[in-house]
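Encode chain A's predicted structure.
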Amino acid sequence: MTATYDAYAASGTDDGTAEGKVFNVAGQDWDDVVKGVTDEDELLVINMGPQHPSTHGVLRLILTLDGESVTEARVGIGYLHTGIEKNMEFRTWTQGSTFCTRMDYLAPIFNETAYCLGVEKLLGVTDQIPERAQIIRVMMMELNRISSHLVAIATFGLELGATTVMLNGFIEREYTLDIFELITGLRMNMAYVRPGGVAQDLPPGALDKLREYLERMPERFLAMRKLMDANPVYLARTKDVAYLDLTGCMALGITGPVLRSTGLPWDLRKSQPYCGYETYDFEVATQTSADVYGRYLVRMQEMDESLKIIQQCVDRLTVTKGPVMIEDKKIGWPAQLAIGADGMGNSPKHIAHIMGTSMEALIHHFKLVTEGFRVPAGQVYSAVESPRGELGVHVVSDGGTRPYRAHFRDPSFTNLQATAAMCEGGFVADVIAAVASIDPVMGGVDR
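Encoded structure for chain A:
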């Protein structure tokens, strides 16, 4: 018997030393390890991660195996901790968008929108946000939902050995990121949604680019489904795998596609509308299989519904004119930016406009950017339906120019609780499919 310290030991002494045989596997022949297990009843504890490509980032799974069966699955997180929430306490309310956008880095627009909706609720200006800004927010969120789901499905295909699925998924995602770059200047982590509206209006040619996108994507989604929907290997790896019914989801607080795969049409866009979602025509995608395959189908259906919403946004933006930032100059940052010919800074004409209006306007502009606006003391909770489920933020203000506290309910963090329920009793190979069907993003877990 050997004893080594293991903070995650399933059983042992008070000082954390494991009891029994400990096998240190470090790249040697697996047959040599198997020969060392002489007792047929011996359980094997292995680490999957934190660098494993099938754990969607730096996630560590501690698996107890009885042969190929998983008897216990524990989740180790915290390897990607960034302190984003704490950092937001030392920045102005507007600068908070620049930080929170980096949490779930596959859904940055949702992070920004949830936060800004909370700030606007504290300010009491929810009804003053321009209609055009709200339409743009909805359109950008649905584009972001598509790009996020494409990554989920593409990486899932790769994890099961289907590189063709991965290539197709990422190719289609590029078309979405091209639109992000055209509208915001960045492909991800844009800080585009800000308290009071959005950073700037759509540039020339954006609506034409969106119409081309809407023409292309339905056919491409159909092509991806042909690769997987009836593929016997894919079905064998996903059907009746990682089963979690409605009772389990409710007990664990699971939301998003995992919950909707049980048949419950819970979607905040319908149940607790925001940004005018109640005025859009779309359906909530559901399945009843409550397994990996059902979660895949929900995501594919959601992308189709997102295209319907984007089409409605394009139609509305064509006829809806006006500002994209709140009219209150005490809150709204300049949203009509003009880029210089070199593409690296503001145009001289735009600078002359800011500096030549009046000395008071210039002073106010300087104070708004450097000091920020004050938010009345109070606290609110605001939530949006992100690609992974309910993304909420609890924002607290002490009446100053910076958040006193900003704490996020990230669905990846909550949904990871389902790992044990999905994996225990199944095969070790199914752990990869289970985690992929949750689609966790560790930036949102470890924020």
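The CA atoms of residues 345 and 382 lie 34 Å apart.
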